[in-house]
Amino acid sequence: MTVDRERVRSLVRELLEAIGEDPERPGLRQTPERVADAYAEFFAGVGEDAAAPLAHTISISRGPAPETVPSGAVMLRGVDFRSICEHHLLPFRGVAHLAYLPGEQVVGLGALSKVVEVLAARPQVQERLGEQIADTIAASLDARGVLVVLDASHECVTMRGAQQKNATTVTIAARGELADPAARAELIALISLRQGQGPVAQAQGSAVQAQGSVTT
């Protein structure tokens, strides 16, 4: 799906008039065009297949280096992402930590970050974003377990309302074997080690998050 830039431009102009501004004044004359360009980037994932990056897998038993079969989880930490909260159309941004227990197939690590990118480029809430990432990985790979931890700052919290500028939201989504808090404790510890401190460390064992859910 392609963002209708012309319609966005028209609506932004109307919005500026609705808040009492003059869209023809010099500082705002190019604003509708700029917002249309930004929205085309922010919402590029609408209608895009998030599983497509995972279509090319590598056999770990019949591949070029079968002796490197992983004995534990594959983890990609610190994947930067940004999205737009669907409630206020304000940005939220943070880091994603992804892990899965591979079966016969593994996937290029860049493909995992692409899944995050596609799903984040839509109107989102963080709780759903983590669940969608976990579902996409679980459905596309023969993984025995999947873990997705998101840690993000929301402008609807930091810039309006309570204006808690230091607040972050942590959500956990887990599938398969990693739905068991004890099974994922080592992975949570590794994420916390990278973070150094903060709410992720508190999630170890209890799997209690600021918002969100854990689904088997």
SS content category: alpha+beta
Radius of gyration: 20 Å
Superfamily (CATH H level) name of the largest domain: GTP cyclohydrolase I, C-terminal domain/NADPH-dependent 7-cyano-7-deazaguanine reductase, N-terminal domain
Q: Into which percent range does the helicity of residues fall?
A: 25-40%
What is the CATH architecture annotation of the largest domain?
A: 2-Layer Sandwich
Count the E strands: 7
Strand content: 15-25%
By CATH, the topology of the largest domain is GTP Cyclohydrolase I, domain 2
Distance between the termini: 31 Å
Total helices: the number is 7
Major sheet summary line: 5 strands, mixed
Mean pLDDT: 88
Overall body shape: elongated
The helix/strand series, from N terminus to C terminus, equals HHEEEEHEHEHEHH
What is the strand arrangement across the widest sheet? 5-2-3-6-7
Give unreliable regions as ranges: 197-216
CATH class division of the largest domain: Alpha Beta
What's the structural domain tally? Answer: 2
